[in-house]
């Protein structure tokens, strides 16, 4: 799929296509989650584009197509895709790049933070472990049971933004576990300003993995923050608290990234 550059914020909400919205000198890369698409990141992208950021949400390799396409990729492909997107965004953002991600995207953002030393990293509901213990069997089970049906739907205000698969390839779940193992090992070498957000009603991961990320990351305490959102589920960027979340991120970046746009006052920058 082609990435369309410009200010086309009013794109179709459920489109799995990547987006690249040109703005000011600070770039914001936002990475979707496992088996997700940039569609789930559009409200966040629109908020920060209105503030003046240049925003890019890539479609990670194997995603947004078919379960079979996802099954053919490896975790290194997802990281390579995110890295290439970061470097592309850097060409359009002379003030530097902030990397952000939801769930698996947050885990990849941590790896990019260690490798590329961006201006800051924003980690949203990122896991270090599997909450569903069945997932640990994926490296064995996928050989004779390659897919798991999607289980249930999200609330309507969240589902409206999703472009989900009807089944999840278990080989890809095994690849996700390999990625998380690398993230846990690399966390002490993350030293950039770090904002961590976690919903207390997260139904997908262990919420307290956020505390583990905060403690293990090598970022000095004065340059990292962990903020809890009591009513938020796993897809925190689509929850009813999302506007408060985006404002908190904007305030953190304005404090720790010289030249970052000022956060909106209460009631500004609609989501």
UniProtKB/TrEMBL annotation:
Pfam families xrefs: Hydrolase_4
Active site: 103 (nucleophile), 202 (charge relay system), 234 (charge relay system)
Ranges for domain Serine aminopeptidase S33: 28-241
GO molecular function: carboxylic ester hydrolase activity
InterPro entries associated with the record: AB_hydrolase_fold, Esterase_lipase, Hydrolase_4, MAG_DAG_Lipase
Residues that hold substrate according to the record: 34, 104
Alphabetical list of PANTHER family matching this protein: PHOSPHOLIPASE-RELATED (PTHR11614)
Protein name, as recorded: Serine aminopeptidase S33 domain-containing protein
Lineage of the organism: Bacteria, Bacillati, Bacillota, Bacilli, Bacillales
């Amino acid at each position: 799929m082609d990435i369309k550059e410009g200010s086309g914020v009013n794109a179709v909400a459920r489109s799995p296509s990547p987006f690249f919205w040109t703005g000011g000198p600070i770039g914001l890369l936002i990475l979707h989650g496992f088996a997700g698409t940039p569609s789930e990141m559009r409200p966040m992208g629109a908020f920060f584009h209105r503030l003046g950021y240049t925003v890019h949400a890539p479609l990670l390799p194997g995603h947004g197509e078919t379960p079979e396409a996802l099954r053919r990729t490896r975790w290194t492909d997802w990281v390579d895709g995110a890295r290439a997107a970061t470097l592309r965004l850097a060409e359009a953002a002379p003030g530097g790049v902030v990397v952000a991600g939801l769930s698996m995207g947050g885990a990849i953002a941590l790896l990019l933070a260690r490798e590329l030393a961006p201006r800051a990293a924003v980690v949203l509901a990122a896991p270090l472990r599997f909450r569903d213990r069945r997932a640990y069997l994926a490296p064995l089970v996928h050989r004779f049971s390659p897919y798991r049906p999607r289980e249930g739907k999200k609330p309507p205000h969240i589902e409206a933004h999703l472009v989900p698969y009807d089944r999840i390839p278990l080989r890809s779940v095994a690849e996700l576990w390999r990625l998380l193992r690398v993230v846990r090992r690399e966390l002490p070498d993350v030293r950039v300003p770090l904002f961590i957000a976690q919903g207390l009603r997260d139904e997908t991961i262990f919420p307290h993995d956020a505390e583990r990320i905060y403690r293990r990351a090598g970022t000095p305490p004065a340059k990292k923050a962990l903020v809890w959102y009591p009513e938020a589920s796993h897809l925190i960027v689509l929850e009813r608290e999302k506007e408060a979340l985006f404002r908190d991120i904007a305030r953190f970046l304005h404090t720790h990234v010289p030249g970052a746009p000022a956060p909106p006052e209460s009631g500004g920058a609609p989501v």
